[in-house]
Give the backbone structure.
Amino acid sequence: MTRFARWAALAVASALLAAGCSGGSSDDDKGGLSWGRCKTTADGPAPSSDWQCATLKVPLDWSKPDGETIGLALIRAKARGGDRVGSLLFNFGGPGASGVSMMPSYAPTVSRLRERYDLVSWDPRGVGASEGVRCRGDKEIQAAESVDVTPDTPAEEKAYFQDAADFAKGCRKDAGKLMAHVSTADSARDMDRIREVLGDEKMHYFGISYGTELGGTYAHLFPKKVGRMTLDAVVDPGADAVGHAKNQARGFQRALNGYLESTGQDPAEGSRKIADLLRRIDTRPLPTGTPGRKLTQTLAATGIILPLYSKDSWPTLTSALDAAERGDGSELLALADGYNERDSSGRYGTTTHAQRVISCLDDRQRPTAATTRKLLPEFEKISPVFGTFLGWDTAGWCHDWPVPGQHDTPEVSAPGAAPVLVVGNTGDPATPYEGARRMADELGKGVGVMLTWRGEGHGAYGSGSDCVDSTVDAYLLDGSVPKDGKVCS
């Protein structure tokens, strides 16, 4: 079962580069890392010679620092300028996004930062080249696309929860002992080891989407090690699993309303039209022109979600919806495949596998089917288009999970930490703006510094606002902390 929507990587629709660590080495860091040329993988070509890769060994279980180890894949490009601040570590979200794959493609967006920083990222534990988890094969993933994630009958409900249980078993079989050691807190401790081996006294960090929760967790665990930290597209640290689902229903509906208004439609009427389309597809999936594949209700909703991440993609959504109204599901299917990392040969990426393994270890809350049924009217009121999907998702996502969750909400208070720049976008669909304000407040007085952008899309930096970009650059490059509450229009 593919999750309908959670926090996603910043460039969820991008065709990402892929990189690994090759043989050979260059200079070593204080921690003994052996950096070498990145190599070609099955997913794509190696990045240019500007980039170096390495593997860092860290404890499987941080409570046993001298015990069994796992390898973390790292990538970096050295600073171009002479007045180097240090390393700037990036996490692009998910959870489950590969930093090794994404860092080279994101580098042009942060080219100015490279004047004074080494750009560094990594695959967190359980992700990609860092002991990545794969819970089922490609054929099983495609077969699961026919499972109805908004069950209307006892038979559909039974199939929905059986698929969730089967996915959990597959994760357990593949991950083994690692499954209990991929939490956000584990990765925050990995981050501090990365800082140490890179030779940085302080952690300079840029976290996006889920990467903001990871950054907040790091700040809580290591407040005195926080350097210049920016959190963009912020996950609400005060929301539990159900709260996050409500936030996303609210955020995606808000983005859909903005899209509908941009096309001259009344948001309420436009939403009813789309909801009616999804109900018809639930009863009769649409042909797509691809043998053996039809557009199911879940795939259709996923296809609608993807273009809402960026205002530039709204015309694509118009075309896909028009085609679906004519009985052609091919365009929405292509969009859903982009979200689900399915390529033209039928191979799927594993971001959602890692996402589920990490988030279900983090989240203690396990809503039941009965709880979900009671919540559905509230979800549907929040979003007539996405509410039912996100409501049922709360019960199915961690159903029958073999390891217990660790907390209801993450702890991000960081008394004594240096100022952390928290960037919120009022039109963010995946991580609604309210979460940024909550993060700034929970980091603590004098720590969380709020910057608001009145824009659209997932994330603010690099999205077209000179005000946002120059404020973030001044903070990261020169240590210039803006006034708390600054607004960029």
The chain has two domains: 36-132+182-239+413-487, 138-173+240-397.
